[in-house]
């Protein structure tokens, strides 16, 4: 059987009891390590599981999935995914491939950032579609997130923004020369995300949001050092020191809010006076 | 410390290793048992945890939370929530109360239906706001879900519909007479939900959806007997036998879809020919 096992969001003990039983019994255990990361190293997982774990990079999963699925019709193979197996990214491709090969598939759900973000204190009911933010370069500044946020805000909904991570990436030069040398990993911060968002608003000028729009920066959601910082987008441009190390995410508020959310999120505000003033003017009682 | 511990969606082994450690060590363990249920009984949990569990009904949580929080500043108290602690319903109220009492709060995330529904094969990115469907009565047919679905569909998004559960409810007569006699639990099925949705569309006539709109019925998501049935809303009115026992949820598709989703969800179709024909006409390539 081929098992997709969610690992949750942060530490080795975030795996479920059901998931751990599968990992301990499987013939081979792969760790998908390019769409997200845990806050602990592979060695911590191996010592907790009491067995070796094979890191599966994008190339292996996307181009060589039959290697992962090898013999899974007769043996148990576990494929570990940070968060939920069908969460922040889908792994439907490898499941479809398994079905083609008549391999039975089991999944073990776990916390995903898309539900875990509820810990920031906003009702999950009122989130719209989720968007992704990639690192801008001089020549590549994809802004499709802007129209998505516009849609969400037009009907009053919050937007969860998932931030780029770059692991095992080659420089253009190394790629051109066919050298398998990889750059150090990079994780986008709330500060970079807020800055890029304001740059695109500046360019497009449609007033979808602005420097005074309220947002929440989230760091290490679900982990022991989980941290939320609430403020205006402008304030969040400079809040990385408060948030600390990766992973970060961001929520841009929609106008559909509840007084209880105000009270709850307020405790995370950079500046509670600013928070109260803008909340009252732009959010409170707006449906 | 006051811990909110997510139990995940179905069986006793869906708790995380971290959550189980807290449950085994805490002075008291409460189970919130009115917003959702696991697929196993309290006795199964007690035997798995090796300790008694106190059932917390709505009255206790909403009117008597200080009893739950008693001594939590000096002892560990665990409050178990099906799904994620901040998932399908929020428990921000009791957390705010704990903070007022200067009780430190910890949360242990877990799978929620709002992320677990990804197992149906639709990208979670493209879900809009979540709506709830309650049992209609002759005099009470709340239809606010209709406008929410309209908003989601206007921007191409899917809608997750969470279905009513009634546990520990009194009949009007017993309530009037002050008799603490409770009705047997009731769980809404996909068939009832689809029927109510079509009734409201019939009444409102705005064409937000119709009998031929595509949807997915989901049963026991994340459990060993998880089951999905895809079809038109009309087909889903009669699919309860295929889906089996509770809990059920429903997803109404938005037009923003991907070919991979077609292939994946198709395997669950009541009638693959109908599915393909409607998908091609109304969904494929629509952004």
Automatic annotation (TrEMBL), chains A, B:
Tagged with keyword Methyltransferase: yes
Give start and end of each Tetrapyrrole methylase domain: 1-236
Annotated pathway, please? Protein modification; peptidyl-diphthamide biosynthesis
UniProt keywords (A-Z) are:
Methyltransferase, S-adenosyl-L-methionine, Transferase
What EC number(s) are associated with this protein in UniProt? 2.1.1.314
Q: Which reaction does it catalyse?
A: 2-[(3S)-amino-3-carboxypropyl]-L-histidyl-[translation elongation factor 2] + 4 S-adenosyl-L-methionine = diphthine methyl ester-[translation elongation factor 2] + 4 S-adenosyl-L-homocysteine + 3 H(+)
GO MF annotations in UniProt? diphthine methyl ester synthase activity
Q: State the Gene Ontology BP annotations.
A: methylation; protein histidyl modification to diphthamide
Question: Is the Methyltransferase keyword given for this protein?
Answer: yes
What InterPro entries would the database entry show? 4pyrrol_Mease, 4pyrrol_Methylase_sf, 4pyrrole_Mease_sub1, 4pyrrole_Mease_sub2, Dphthn_synthase
Quote the record's binding site residues for S-adenosyl-L-methionine: 9, 84, 87, 112-113, 163, 221, 248
Q: Which HAMAP family match?
A: Diphthine_synth (MF_01084)
- Tell me which PANTHER family the record gives: DIPHTHINE METHYL ESTER SYNTHASE (PTHR10882:SF0), DIPHTHINE SYNTHASE (PTHR10882)
State the function annotated in the UniProt record: S-adenosyl-L-methionine-dependent methyltransferase that catalyzes four methylations of the modified target histidine residue in translation elongation factor 2 (EF-2), to form an intermediate called diphthine methyl ester. The four successive methylation reactions represent the second step of diphthamide biosynthesis.
Q: Which family does it belong to?
A: Belongs to the diphthine synthase family.
Q: What is this protein called?
A: Diphthine methyl ester synthase
Record organism: Immersiella caudata
Query: What is the phylogenetic placement of the source species in the record?
Result: Eukaryota, Fungi, Dikarya, Ascomycota, Pezizomycotina
């Amino acid at each position: 059987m081929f098992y997709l096992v969610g690992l949750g969001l942060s530490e080795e003990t975030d795996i479920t009891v059901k998931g751990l039983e599968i990992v301990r019994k499987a013939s081979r255990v792969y760790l998908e390590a390019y769409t997200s990361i845990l806050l602990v190293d592979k060695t911590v997982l191996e010592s907790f599981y009491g067995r070796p774990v094979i890191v599966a990079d994008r190339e292996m999963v996307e181009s060589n999935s039959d290697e992962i699925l090898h013999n899974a019709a007769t043996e148990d193979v576990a494929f570990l995914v940070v968060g939920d197996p069908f969460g922040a990214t889908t792994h439907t491709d490898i499941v479809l491939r398994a079905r083609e090969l008549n391999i039975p598939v089991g999944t073990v759900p776990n916390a995903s950032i898309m539900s875990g973000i509820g810990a920031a204190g906003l009702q999950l009911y009122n989130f719209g579609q989720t968007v992704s933010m990639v690192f801008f370069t001089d020549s590549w500044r994809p802004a499709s997130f802007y129209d998505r946020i516009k849609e969400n805000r037009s009907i009053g909904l919050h937007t969860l923004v998932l931030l780029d991570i770059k692991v095992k990436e080659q420089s253009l030069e190394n790629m051109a020369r066919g050298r398998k040398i990889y750059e150090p990993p990079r994780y986008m911060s709330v500060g970079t995300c807020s800055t890029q968002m304001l740059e695109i608003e500046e360019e497009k000028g449609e007033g979808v949001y602005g420097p005074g729009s309220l947002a929440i920066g989230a760091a290490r959601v679900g982990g022991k050092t989980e941290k939320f910082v609430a403020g205006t987008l402008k304030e969040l441009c400079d809040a990385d020191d408060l948030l600390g190390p990766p992973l970060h995410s961001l929520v841009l508020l929609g106008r559909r809010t509840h007084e209880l959310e105000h009270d709850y999120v307020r405790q995370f505000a950079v500046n509670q006076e600013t928070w109260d003033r803008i909340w009252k003017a732009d959010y409170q009682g707006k449906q």
